[in-house]
Amino acid sequence: MDHLISMYIDNELSIDEKILFVEHVYDNKPYKNDAVDLLEQEKLLSASLNKTAPAVELKTTRARILPIFNRSLGWAVAACLLLLLSFMARQDFTQIKPATEPTAVLHRFVIHNQKAQRVEISGSFTNWKNVPLVPSGTNGYWEISLKLPAGEHHYTFIIDGSKPLPDPTVATQEADDFGSTNSILKVETENEQYPFS
Amino acid sequence: MSEKYQNFYEEYKNKLFSYLIYKSGDHETSKDIMQESFTRHFQHYGHDAVLSPGLLFTIARNALVDHWRQQKKFPVSEDIISQIAADQESSLITQETTDRIHTTMGRLPELDRDILTLAVGGVAYKEIAATFGLSIENIKVRVHRSRAKLRQMMKNEVE
User: Fold this and answer.
1) Where are the domains of chain B?
2) How high is the ipTM of this complex?
3) Over the stretch B1-44, which tens digit does the pLDDT of each residue have?
4) CB nearest to B125's CB, from A12, A38, A178
5) Contact B93 A44 (CB under 8 A)
6) CA atoms within 13 A on the CB side of A4
7) Which residues of A touch B31 (CB under 8 A)?
8) What residues does each domain of chain A span?
9) Fold of domain A102-193
10) Which listed site, A9, A35, A92, A97, has its alpha carbon 20 to 30 Å from A185?
11) Distance CA B144, CA A12 (A)
12) What is the pTM of this model?
């Protein structure tokens, strides 16, 4: 019950908790006094701790499409490109897959670790949640097949719930912000791999 | 930078800066690490970054520790208190009160101090829980326990 005072101060109460809190403040004078004391203390804490950030310039230069390449222009260019490619391949237009087709690709991850009791994978495609691999046979191979959208994916294997291990079969790696190393996998769709199929 | 991330930046810049000032006691260091943390947060997680404010604080904590390692100098609490007093912008409280609160907070365990600083700064319990890998229930208990302890210690000093 006491921690409702802090939740009140921090705007963390649900509606039901608010009812409970108000009733308790009304019925119990020592509780009300505690709440007021902590609110007074909060004024000092807040004035002491909360600062105004200075203006800074953020260097947020992610690779992105040129601004002029907006959606409508993008569709027009994509359509022209498809037309051109289809002429070059002397193919019927109906055989060309539309650009809007879902572009997930099934990718099989395999790792060999005979000592592990448990192997999981955690990556940008799992929202960095751990997803277990299953043993493949009895020789220490673990595997999982996941549908990945086209693009660049970052991931790592997790051995026995705690030890991160980058994929030894993938050469491209990067250090993350938490002291570990992630593997980088670039997934291309069938359309990208075989534009004329 | 997208408008979505710009809004996120506006919402979190003071929260992160206040936390860094409390941890480091140094205005320039806090400013540099705040800039670096937002940049890395956006570059690493892109537009999904707005869904994970906890990661912003984790990046900032790691960057601060890296900074101290490079400087080969970890600050001691007395330095931090004097720097914070010098940085004091509010005319509502005296330097003496600031010193007292910081000195008293220094007697709380470090994790509880960090959690309380973020809660006072207006960071949601859910995000504080994500930053430190704890449950929300645990954060509720720790935040209140720290406030109650602080009040008791301040009272004892007066008496």
Assistant:
1) 3-158
2) 0.78
3) 677 888 888 999 999 999 998 888 888 889 999 999 988 888 77
4) A12
5) yes
6) 17
7) 53-54, 56
8) 3-49, 62-97, 102-193
9) Immunoglobulin-like (2.60.40)
10) A97
11) 12
12) 0.56
